[in-house]
Amino acid sequence: MTDTAPMVSVREAHKMFGDLHVLRGVDLTVSAGEVCVVLGPSGSGKSTLLRCINELEVLTGGQVRIEGELIGYEERHHGGHTRLHRLHPKRIAAQRSRIGMVFQRFHLFPHMTALENVMEAQVQVRGRSKAEAKARAVEMLGRVGLSDRMDHYPAQLSGGQQQRVAIARALAMDPEIMLFDEPTSALDPELVGEVLAVMKDLAASGMTMVVVTHEIGFAREVADHVLFMDEGVIVEEGPASQVIDAPQESRTQDFISHVL
Amino acid sequence: MTSPADASARRGDPVPNRIHARPVPRPGRWAAAAIVLVFAAMAVNSLLTNPNYGWDVVWAYFLDVTVIRGVGWTLVLTFGSMAIGVVLAVLLAIMRRSDNPVLVSVSWFYIWFFRGTPIYTQLVFWGLIAVLYPRLSLGIPFGPEFFTFTTKDVITAFWAALLGLALNEAAYLAEIVRAGLNSVDPGQAEAARALGMKEPAILRRIILPQAMRVIVPPTGNETISMLKTTSLVLAVPFTLDITFATNAIGNRLFQPLPLLIVAALWYLIITSILMVGQYYLERYYGRGTDKRTGGGKGPKPGSRRARKQEAINAAGRGNDDPFLEVTP
Question: Average pLDDT for residues A15-37, to the nearest whole number?
Fold first, then answer.
């Protein structure tokens, strides 16, 4: 849209699950190339925020824009005022394909090899030929250091390897932004490092990233911007040096002292 | 004399102190086995010696043309109705999962109705469809008609039997398919959705292949069950299947018993063949199968298909007994 529109812009986001008010007015702006790390205790709404960005959950109130484009809706002008019209699922799917997502539990397709996992959406969504998709998948698996595991099924890979395949699967779609939902929380401690290394590499290459994590070290090293969320609101935000090393709010101080 | 440990070592046994203990005496086991054997021997003896079974008639008609043709028709009905049933069942299961309340209720009602009434009643009903609707027509609902047919020309006894069996079976299979679809981790659909895949592709490429593991074994069971259910098509009446054919011969000869045995033997033979098929299918798709039990049978070990299925099995899902809800 415009050159000035931020990569991700979330405004006044509210999310209700029945009577449960999970997001209570969250604002988030991520510029192109920026790495934003979201910290917070479980149940603070940080995963929900992430899932609302790519419409896996639908906001109850507020809006999400990617490069200025409203996600999930179309604004139509009727006389003096603007009305929201829900987008057709096909168009929402197209919007999602611009946003890569990595899950806590990997969610690789167990009936496909690593290579097929990375090829699948390229063929189904991007309409690439098998050969093109394969070339791209080989390239991406090489990038995450799994060139020698391409023909393995997910069950034959370690957790860290599975998560790296999941990252390659998302990257092969050429996303403009990558969302990470606690990507290392389901991993054995000795496997966390290899996934974080791939993510650091990705950040260094200029990818826009929103990362929900408990890895304070990663946040300190890589994040341009750190958010601390609790009970559905952003309690504190700023550079890592401020939010992690010199938190102002007592809730942030409390959390940081527990996870460090 | 050397110690047992030395003896084991000499025999190359990796366990130096292998236990060689006497088992607990179990006289009850021997007694039970003896009693059961006596009863079994009596049963076999009576089968062979009682002239009323008429084994000579059995063998005379076992390969009779009418009987063989009956076997053929029974097989056509079994596999034909299963094929139609599977297609309908997938449709019903997908309807049941949709978020359109009309589709959900129609699917629910269908399953409720066809599972809730006896197959015999349904077959009689399909046989009488021409009485209920003497003419069928293609046209605009509540509007003009373009083509009309006489029902009894279109829906012959064979089609009535086939449709009757298929529509009934679809209700049972729909529940099996639904259990299969539900057994797939919802995270799978979510991951596919996050990649921008559309719902039909997610179902076809991601969910159904994983659901097959749960769907295939009970479907094999249903096929065996269908084989025997086809004996009810005389309700239509369809008169060419093995049960009707053997009954007709039996009545003509005033020898109903030997011809019942002919039919029973044929059902047993086909069931046995289906059971062998099902055994391999279950090995191939069975849950919890690990690498040790994989060898030799089913897909070639180490082949692409074998490794693929192994991977699916190893991914295991939490849903421990997906068949529980489908048991009628």
Answer: 95
